[in-house]
């Protein structure tokens, strides 16, 4: 579909939404807008702003109390919707002077767990554990570790006073909090799914504790909510964006490429989860592409829709020029002007509406995540096996050398053809990329600045040489985010999973396994589901010297295109 016909399709759908009063039906939680399969049970986020305004007194009281007691750091333990939103708020708005610093741990990589432990003095740290159900693996092992550490540092009698739980009423986490004497429990709303929860307690509690003006953030969100009640779909900022995203995806422009001013760029990580986990199912997906290294505007394919989030106080002239080049090249670009950092509240609500509407346009239920559970089941089976046998099941590489070992299933081995080295296997794998595909690097390694930079360089090579969209996710956090789209969306992904030996490991208190074992089980569970879905997937295992391994991987990728 050419840009002209895309514009016509968008106009038709906007007119239909207006004529059929679909905006009013959205606000009355009419599940028939989607698939009539229980969507009405997950629309509490439409009402959450007023509910949180009623909690402002409690949020302020808790924040004042911990500051008075000399708390200097807040360590948030969460995953997915429980961690990405608070991290974005803190990184974009920042904490107030004198308020505790917020640290967000959402990785089972043992080096990362140890680094977060070393970064705080637990005597003056409040641990904030966030889990809707209380049954999610990652927050539970994080809590086991840091509650044990608190007992060592402040004593068993005082450990609970250093912990606050955010969870849904009646959850397993509530029971743990009451049993262990946690300082407080903040309750979420059961009708708000994790990825829509940033304006609920899961976002407002950590924001308040780090000194963010939560009332101002909610006021901004309320302004957008009011605008999104407009029944004229074309002038409704959330609905119009959702229709554009949905119709673009139907037209083959399903790689939602996020461009953002530096000051608001952290929002992309939250958008990745919201969009991918909501739309990626039943063979359909909008694939968000965040923080991709830029190339010449003329080299992008016809599968892209660009969204430019321009922060007025932090506009970048080079970025503005690049967007103009995209326009001249005929690429569709949606420009969103963000007034200041507190207008982040507006963007949260705008994009929640847009994602719900895009789901309606695509004919899917945007509030479930049927393929996320598949990885959890496989991970649980592997950790159970470790506790019973003392080791993960044996596996054999397809090929290996001193720097890398390659793993995949029989179907992918046959597709690769004869390969004698890891370099040959990587080259054969990347040569399977065709127009309309995307390449995703799935890295189960420590999320350090150096490792991110090395993987970004590899992305840049692939994007430039293959002309395809590229994604980068760190495990296990992407499992609760883009992982849904990778498994439930169309077979347009080419996956390169990256694992490593852990130079240092950390024991999970009360369990037979370590964090390294948990991470390995998550990687293998993730890869196993990709294999079951018939995805083009290759696992590259590096040694303990991750920097050298990533350099070898980059050389192999570069060699593919020479």
TrEMBL record:
Pfam families: PGI. GO terms for cellular component: cytosol. It is an enzyme of class 5 (isomerase). This is Glucose-6-phosphate isomerase. One of its GO terms (molecular function) is glucose-6-phosphate isomerase activity. PROSITE patterns: P_GLUCOSE_ISOMERASE_3. It comes from Luteitalea pratensis. Its EC number is 5.3.1.9. The gene is pgi. One of its GO terms (biological process) is glucose 6-phosphate metabolic process. Keywords: Gluconeogenesis, Glycolysis, Isomerase. Belongs to the GPI family. Gene3D superfamilies: Glucose-6-phosphate isomerase like protein, domain 1. Pathway: Carbohydrate degradation; glycolysis; D-glyceraldehyde 3-phosphate and glycerone phosphate from D-glucose: step 2/4. The keyword Isomerase applies. InterPro entries: G6P_Isomerase (IPR001672), SIS_dom_sf (IPR046348), SIS_PGI_1 (IPR035476). It catalyses: alpha-D-glucose 6-phosphate = beta-D-fructose 6-phosphate.
């Amino acid at each position: 579909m050419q840009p002209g016909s895309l514009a016509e399709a968008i106009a038709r759908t906007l007119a239909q939404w207006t004529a059929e009063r679909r905006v009013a039906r959205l606000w009355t939680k009419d599940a028939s807008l989607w698939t009539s399969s229980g969507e009405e049970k997950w629309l509490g986020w439409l009402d959450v702003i007023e509910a949180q305004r009623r909690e402002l007194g409690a949020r302020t009281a808790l924040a004042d109390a911990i500051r008075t007691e000399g708390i200097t750091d807040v360590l948030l333990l969460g995953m997915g919707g429980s961690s990405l939103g608070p991290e974005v708020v803190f990184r974009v708005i920042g904490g107030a002077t004198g308020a505790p610093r917020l640290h967000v741990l959402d990785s089972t990589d043992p080096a990362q767990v140890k680094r977060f432990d070393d970064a705080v003095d637990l005597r003056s740290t409040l641990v904030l554990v966030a889990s809707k159900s209380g049954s999610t693996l990652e927050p539970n092992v994080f809590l086991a570790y840091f509650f044990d550490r608190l007992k060592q540092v402040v004593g068993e009698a005082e450990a609970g006073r250093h912990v606050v739980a955010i969870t849904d009423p009646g959850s397993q986490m509530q029971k743990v909090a009451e049993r262990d004497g946690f300082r407080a429990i903040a309750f979420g709303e059961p009708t708000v799914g994790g990825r829509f929860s940033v304006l609920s307690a899961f976002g407002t509690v950590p924001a308040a504790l780090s000194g963010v003006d939560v009332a101002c953030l909610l006021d901004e969100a309320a302004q957008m909510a009011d605008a999104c009640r407009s029944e004229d779909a074309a002038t409704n900022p959330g609905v119009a964006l959702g229709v554009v995203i949905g119709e673009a995806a139907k037209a083959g422009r399903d790689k939602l490429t996020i461009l953002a001013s530096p000051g608001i760029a952290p929002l992309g990580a939250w958008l990745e989860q919201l969009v991918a986990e909501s739309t990626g199912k039943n063979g359909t997906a909008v694939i968000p592409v965040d923080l991709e290294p830029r190339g010449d505007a003329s080299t992008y394919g016809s599968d892209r829709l660009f969204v430019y989030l321009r922060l007025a106080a932090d506009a970048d002239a080079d970025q503005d020029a690049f967007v103009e080049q995209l326009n001249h090249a005929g690429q569709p670009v949606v420009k969103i002007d963000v007034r200041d950092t507190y207008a982040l509240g507006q963007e949260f609500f705008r994009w929640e509406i847009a994602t719900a509407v895009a789901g309606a346009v695509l004919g899917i239920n945007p509030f479930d995540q049927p393929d996320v559970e598949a990885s959890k089941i496989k991970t649980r089976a592997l950790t159970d096996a470790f506790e019973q046998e003392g080791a993960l099941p044996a596996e054999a590489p397809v090929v290996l050398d001193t720097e890398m070992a390659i793993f995949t299933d029989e179907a992918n081995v046959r597709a690769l053809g004869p390969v004698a080295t890891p370099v040959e296997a990587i080259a054969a794998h990347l040569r399977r990329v065709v127009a309309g595909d995307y390449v995703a690097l799935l890295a189960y390694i420590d999320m350090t600045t150096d490792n991110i930079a090395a993987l970004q360089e590899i992305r840049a090579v692939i994007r430039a040489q293959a002309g395809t969209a590229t994604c980068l996710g760190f495990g296990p956090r992407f499992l609760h985010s883009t992982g849904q789209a990778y498994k439930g969306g169309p077979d347009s992904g080419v996956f390169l999973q990256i694992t490593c030996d852990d130079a240092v490991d950390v024991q999970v208190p009360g369990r037979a396994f370590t964090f390294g074992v948990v991470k390995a089980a998550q990687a293998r569970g993730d890869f196993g589901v990709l294999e079951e879905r018939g995805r083009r997937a290759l696992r590259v295992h590096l040694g303990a010297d991750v920097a050298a391994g990533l350099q070898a991987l980059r050389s192999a990728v570069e060699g593919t295109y020479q």
